[in-house]
Amino acid sequence: MLRCLHPWRLSGGRAGLRLLQRHLFTMKVQSPEFQSLFTEGLRSLTELFAKENHELRIAGGAVRDLLSGVKPQDVDFATTATPEQMKGLFQAAGVRMINNKGEKHGTVTARLQNENFEITTLRIDVVTDGRHAEVEFTTDWQQDAERRDLTVNSMFLGFDGTLYDYFNGYEDLKNKKVRFVGHAKKRIQEDYLRILRYFRFYGRIVDKPGDHDPETLEAIAENAKGLGGISGERIWVELKKILVGNHVSHLVHLIYDLDVAPYIVKYRNDLTKATDSAEPLKPYQDFIIDSREPDAAARVWELLKYQGQPDLLRDLQQWSVPSFPVSGHDIRKAGISSGKEIGALLQQLRDQWKKSGYQMEKDELLSHIKKS
Ligand SMILES: Nc1ccn([C@@H]2O[C@H](COP(=O)(O)OP(=O)(O)OP(=O)(O)O)[C@@H](O)[C@H]2O)c(=O)n1
Ligand SMILES: [Mg+2]
């Protein structure tokens, strides 16, 4: 998962600006990944905002991915427009809005040319309890960058290719450094899940494991117990992402050394509560099956070794990973030709197969298609 940095075209002679933290560094970004985002839907969206003089930029993780030469899986947008202004603008243009649950936190989702766009008003987190935040809207990009977790996740990218970087995120990405924006302690106390996000991005970005900012490690150790208040399901989602990254062994050690482990693994019966507790191996097996990485099993052993669960470890080591018996070809033979439908059916059958404890065979699975 080594990510290489693209040779960016710098807009002449501004490199000196990045020396000061909290000093806006800008440059121009041109890359095939960036260009590939410009769908018809995105063009219409940017035009709508430009017409009303609202600023709209790509924000956070998607900027990080683009700068690493990776096409982002999901793109978040940030804007100076308030949710009310966005709603007015979309209504006037006859654009459908969906899923208004995010509105309290400033997020409006608009559907243009069959694509969904999640757009969030710039905000300050006014009150945080380590899990949720009460927010206040702002039109100041720097303030929005300041409430984000890591420097590499705190950048914005305008549609003319201008990168806006307030906290040396670009420099950190190039130097493969994972750092919190401002004080690690404060950032973690705003949302304890950020402890695990730190490990996750460390596994994604850093080449050689071992180097950490002492202040960060201290802040993690001091605040690990905050993870006790986060739902097991959210923890498990992050943990799985750590396990598919690099440096798993190093990170699992660190999770134990910093005493984070008690709050995310031992004593946590709800960690994998989506599944039956009579089958303690199931979530790990599902993870291995879903990850499709050749060494996924070894990564989970690593975790179990330290989880103080030698029985689970032994059982998992003896388990031979079954392979899903249905292929796209089988479904096509059953008379379905649309690629999209085949994909959806494969996913459905996979889920059924997993629920059956990987017991269902090909014919039985395929017979379910015909019935539905
Ligand atoms: N606990 C969190 C979660 C998110 N963010 C901010 O919100 C952005 C988007 O969050 P999310 O999509 O959850 O994560 P990404 O960083 O985009 O990572 P991924 O590639 O997994 O989506 C992050 O980049 C970061 O700026 C944050 O500050 N603190
Ligand atoms: Mg994201």
UniProtKB/TrEMBL annotation:
Entry-linked Gene3D superfamilies: Beta Polymerase, domain 2 (3.30.460.10), cca-adding enzyme, domain 2 (1.10.3090.10)
Any one GO MF annotation of this record: metal ion binding
All residue ranges annotated as the tRNA nucleotidyltransferase/poly(A) polymerase RNA and SrmB- binding domain in the record: 213-266
Residues in Poly A polymerase head domain copies: 56-179
Cofactor: Mg(2+)
Entry similarity comment: Belongs to the tRNA nucleotidyltransferase/poly(A) polymerase family.
Reactions catalysed: a tRNA with a 3' CCA end + 2 CTP + ATP = a tRNA with a 3' CCACCA end + 3 diphosphate; a tRNA precursor + 2 CTP + ATP = a tRNA with a 3' CCA end + 3 diphosphate
InterPro entries reported for this sequence: Bact_CCA-adding_enz_type3_sf, NT_sf, PolA_pol_head_dom, PolyA_RNA-bd
Regions annotated as coiled coil: none
GO CC annotations on file: mitochondrion; nucleus
Record has Ribonucleoprotein as a keyword: no
Enzyme Commission number(s) from the entry: 2.7.7.72
Keywords per UniProt: ATP-binding, Cytoplasm, Magnesium, Metal-binding, Mitochondrion, Nucleotide-binding, Nucleotidyltransferase, Nucleus, RNA-binding, Transferase, Transit peptide, tRNA processing
Record's subcellular location: Cytoplasm; Mitochondrion; Nucleus
GO biological process, one term: tRNA 3'-terminal CCA addition
Protein name: CCA tRNA nucleotidyltransferase 1, mitochondrial
